[in-house]
Design a protein that fits this description.
Layout (H helix, E strand, L loop, with lengths): L7 E2 L11 E5 L5 E5 L2 E8 L1 H13 L8
């Protein structure tokens, strides 16, 4: 599933070290996230939910919960 995807490392992960958050866009538009130390564990979400998650983090609040 993740071999042919183009993973992008978070700019907040820094240049060095193995602890990086990475994300990729699947062909179907799904946003995929993984942690570089466990690349086989992949979380998926919709672009709208991912945007809401990022907005909540930027605002300093809690991340939205699933319905």
């Amino acid at each position: 599933m993740t071999a042919s995807l183009e993973w992008q490392k978070s700019s907040f992960s820094g240049a060095n070290g193995p602890n990086c958050v990475e994300l990729a866009a699947a062909v179907n538009g799904t946003v995929l996230l993984r942690e570089s130390e466990a690349p086989a564990v992949v979380l998926s979400t919709t672009p709208a939910r991912f945007a809401a998650f990022l907005d909540a983090i930027k605002a300093g609040g809690s991340a939205p919960t699933a319905p």
